[in-house]
Amino acid sequence: MNFRKLMFLLGLAIIFSTAATAQNYKYIGAAKCKMCHNKPDKGEQFKVWEAGPHAKAMDALQGDEKNDATCLKCHSTAGSVDSGLLAGLKADEGVSCESCHGPGSHYKSAAIMKNKKMALSKGMTDPTEETCKACHLGEKPEGHVAPKKAWNFDEFVKVIAHDDPTTTN
Ligand code: HEC
Ligand code: HEC
Ligand code: HEC
Ligand code: HEC
Are 94 and 57 in contact (CB under 8 A)? Predict the structure, then answer.
């Protein structure tokens, strides 16, 4: 094999291996997280989320708006990601766990979840104010209802808090 051909094949191999890792992380839906994150003594995150504004984000949309990509990109996790990455997540879940914590297909096992560093290397993300701002201060369509309250991270994050009282963070 000549040098140019070798470099070409190496290049291809690098492109494919990066593409494969990025695309392997898929969105599995809140029901999968519920299995482990709905215990009352550990803060029942699923129940708290279900009762909060994000699980109801699709209820704000009427009729055809429920299929309108312009609205779905902020009112539903499924509508905000590439459809090829959906593995169980449905649009009617609204804004669910994986919009803030990252696609769960590869970090969802207990052994990985218990090791935060490992979970972060398998698609989990630490939610920051930037995560929220992508939707809350993102470009809304003309005529969109005005927010009831001006954006304030510290206040808003308290409204959706779902701490686990048994962990340190
Ligand atoms: C098989 C059980 C299991 C499943 C399924 C699961 N988790 Fe976890 N998760 C755990 C365990 C165990 C921990 C470690 C903390 C603890 O003991 O509760 C954890 C920790 C976490 C943490 C805290 C990480 C940190 O240290 O800051 C987040 C956030 C989280 N999980 C989100 C999710 C999301 C989102 C899903 C669904 C996509 C999910 N988990 C699915 C078991 C699970
Ligand atoms: C850039 C993100 C974004 C886009 C795009 C978007 N929304 Fe929203 N929407 C929000 C956020 C965030 C809220 C919460 C209130 C606020 O801060 O504006 C909201 C709130 C609403 C509410 C009020 C819900 C309530 O409970 O009071 C309605 C109705 C609504 N949106 C409809 C729509 C429709 C219809 C579309 C598409 C034409 C759309 N939105 C597109 C982010 C978005
Ligand atoms: C709108 C964003 C958002 C959504 C949706 C969301 N979370 Fe969280 N979650 C957060 C934030 C912010 C924290 C606090 C992170 C910190 O303290 O570092 C958190 C913390 C957690 C923790 C760690 C709690 C602790 O004290 O150790 C777990 C577990 C968790 N979330 C699971 C879930 C599950 C399961 C769902 C869906 C049922 C969900 N989250 C939905 C933003 C979100
Ligand atoms: C994928 C888009 C998206 C992300 C990311 C997101 N939100 Fe939201 N959020 C919404 C939408 C849409 C609503 C409106 C739901 C409704 O009322 O129908 C909302 C509503 C809320 C509300 C209720 C506000 C009100 O006036 O009714 C709070 C509080 C909130 N979000 C906090 C947060 C925080 C804190 C974060 C980041 C940790 C975050 N959100 C991330 C889309 C998002």
Answer: yes
